[in-house]
Write a structure and sequence with these properties.
Structural class: mainly alpha
CATH class of the largest domain: Mainly Alpha
Radius of gyration: 21 Å
Mean pLDDT: 85
Low-confidence stretches: 202-206
Distance between the termini: 69 Å
Strand content: under 5%
Number of domains: 2
Order of helices and strands: HHHHHHHHHHH
Shape: elongated
CATH topology of the largest domain: Tetracycline Repressor, domain 2
CATH superfamily of the largest domain: Tetracycline Repressor, domain 2
CATH architecture of the largest domain: Orthogonal Bundle
Number of helices: 11
Largest sheet: none
Number of strands: 0
Helix content: over 70%
């Protein structure tokens, strides 16, 4: 890049490269995508790309760090002070993690496992750790506030919610399922509200 270009312009190019690479990696995986393609799709020269990202795996790493930062922003915005905060918090978190982790398609992760195994392990561990830690904290807080039943098996509920999140993250589910894949808010509604009529649930509790 030219010396006269501002930091704002530099960050714009940086973001365009990450956006283009993210889309290409998601669709075609790591192995099939070249730096030439990324440069062309982002509208910059290869020289500029290599000045900002010395290697192709560094681009994936920066996409990963950007996703982590986005998820941290979602988590920091969630505050559970009252019982009424619990359901929106879980819904917002699931939507946030689906968006953040959804950057990494099955074909991309498969390629990384073959070519960049340590990076693939880091991404997979991050996905599992983020889901488990935060969902457990929100559910535990929900029980403490009386928003969720006192006998709730938190770990089992975390496992079910995590499986639902994993399902939403797998593109294969969109083609293998005979039904449309539900959005995160519908998944949350089914898991948190159940399928019984409200009056039936109240009678059961009583």
């Amino acid at each position: 890049m030219n010396r006269g270009e501002s930091d704002v312009e530099r960050m714009d190019v940086y973001s365009r490269i990450l956006d283009a690479a993210e889309d290409l990696f998601f669709r075609y995986g790591y192995q099939r995508v070249t730096t030439e393609q990324i440069a062309r799709e982002s509208g910059c020269s290869k020289r500029t790309l290599y000045e900002l990202f010395p290697t192709k795996d560094n681009i994936v790493l920066q996409i990963f760090l950007r996703a982590d930062e986005e998820l941290r922003h979602v988590v920091s915005s969630i505050v559970i002070s009252h019982a009424d905060d619990v359901r929106p918090a879980i819904k917002d978190f699931i939507q946030g993690i689906v968006k953040a982790c959804g950057r990494f398609s099955a074909v991309l992760l498969h390629d990384l496992e073959l070519g960049e195994p340590s990076l693939a392990r880091d991404i997979n561990a991050w996905r599992k750790r983020s889901s488990t830690e935060h969902l457990r904290a929100y559910l535990t807080r929900g029980v403490e506030l009386g928003a969720l039943r006192s006998g709730l098996d938190v770990d089992a509920t975390v496992a079910v919610l995590t499986m639902a999140v994993d399902y939403l993250l797998h593109p294969e589910a969109r083609t293998s399922s005979p039904l449309p894949l539900p959005p995160p808010e519908i998944v949350c509604s089914v898991l948190l509200d159940g399928i019984e009529a409200r009056s039936t649930r109240l009678q059961t509790v009583v």
